[in-house]
Amino acid sequence: MSQDVQIRPKDEFVPSHGPDSSDSSDSTDPDDEQFAQLPGESLGRDLLKNRFVSALIRSRWYPAVFQVPIAAVFGLVAYQLLVGPAKAHENAGTALMWVLWWPALPLVYVLLGRFWCAVCPFAALSDFVQKLVGVNRPVPPFLKKYGIWIIDATFLAITWADHVFGIVGSPWGSGLLLLLLTFSVIVSGAFFQRRAFCRYLCFLGGLSANYARTGMVTLRANSDICSTCTAKAACYNGTDTVAACPLSSFPRTMEDSANCNLCANCIKSCPNDAITLTVRQPTKELWFLRNPKIEESFLAMAIMGIVIIQNVTMLKLWEDVLAWVEQASGITSYPVIFTAVFAVGVSIPVALLALAAKVAAHENIESTMKNFARFGYALIPLDVAAHVAHNLFHLLAEGKSVFYTVSALFGGLPQEGSAAFVGNGRIMVLQFAILALGLAGSLYTARRIAHRRYRTPARRRSTLIPFTILITVLAALNVAMFLFPMAHRM
Amino acid sequence: MASMTGTRRIVIATFVLAAVSAVFGLIMLTSRPMSSAMPGMEMSATSPAPATADHGEMAGMDMSGSAPTPTPTMDPDMAGMDMSGSAPKPTPTPTMDPDMPGMDMPEAEHGAGETAVAAEDRPIGPVLGTFGGGSAAVLLTAGIMRRRDRAANLAKQAARASRRAQK
Fold it and tell me: Residue A167 class from Cβ within 10 Å (0-12 exposed, 13-18 middle, 19+ buried)?
């Protein structure tokens, strides 16, 4: 099967390059000059030097070799959700989607960056629609400017809708979500260039972009070779046989992995073999960010809020909270109560980061907004850890339901035993270990960011103290919640 | 595929959508959810539910995991003693621990009330119809726009060529 080749669009945009322009405009900061001259992230061993990896990545079958089976499973999931058993614990679609795929996703981001986006069935659908009827209009400037805010809002809206209308707990609800996403992908693929949906609209894309920064695999271009290139950005625009970069990233100036899904188009199209695929320590990319964005920091904090709310609503304590709110306020409507709790829950981490940024801004000269944007990224490792720890419970305590429901589909007898792989005690130990790693990662990231940005020990110290307290408080909050027994998803 | 004309693409897209809608329509008409189709799987209306811990000790109401066995003196048609082929499944009540083995409570996570829509109550026809119709409309619109774009490009190229020829 040959790889789909998109019609090559006119250059949509070339990403900006270089240090944070807003920082450099602040001429009163004595550390600006030094910060602007600091080298970027150093690269490790090139995986493309390995014959097997190189052959796989450069093959015409990559990423189709992963896409095809995943699309087949996706079809089964969609079918099950829409016309399968109505009860979540009997539905293979629910088990595959929410017990297997959703918990495994953050692990994939940590190990392989945004690789999932290269093999996602929606991406394949977008390419197919584009090839069939695509108009290839440029992405509207509005989307480019506010896309990440739209992603933030969509992510929050879907989480809210899950609690109010029951998406995870209802196969039909999950099926409707899939249909809605499919329709959005069709619209985006039909009218806009490349994978506009994945880059600017997919709620998972925003999460992926943030989490991929902690990923252990990174794709970069060798700038020495690129400076002599005469191939007219083949890595960005594609060639006659290889599609353009689906996420509109230009490897030569790419400094982060947020918009690289390891599809390998640039590797295949580069005539100079300038692209490298290297392994690095998890979270390393976060230490070297030059151009932090408020909306991405906001998303990191919103995800923290969402994880906290997911945890709270799965505790038995939640029933007591609902009863207390009902008694105290007289409000009996669950959507109203949950909306209020949701708004407070998401706002708490954002407000705490704003508070820490304000405290830090008193001492480190930079504005509160710059501190908010810069150090929000330090929370991403804790975000990932909390997300993984929360979903680890579902994966390990309900994982067998995947086998039970799928085997029932193929004529196996319905299983009545426990769906747990291991006991709650072991899961809790693993959860705490993962949270400890996340805490360590966040603290170390904050330290690296502060040390890189500021030269004087006093500036570093006064910046680090509020953010260290913030990270510790959020980690402690997560630990406290994992101490209580959680309800099952299936 | 690269040489395919705009019209052909539109026609193919329409046929593909019509075929997909037909397949889903057939699926909708012919399939029944496993929960109600499998013999003995529908328990919601017939299974005895223990309301309190005391009920576990009531005669014939042992819910400890094994199916109650009718004694010779018991009538198999007694209310709550459906022995038609399957073991009654305990229905969770608010007083029962949702983490108890075999006592999965799908909605316990959210507390959002009953969200599992019964398969026969799902408006799958209208939903898939709207999805298929909307998608078809999008694909047709995009196909027509693409065709117009190409025609405009060809016209521009022809105009340019004729201008060059005049010079």
Answer: buried
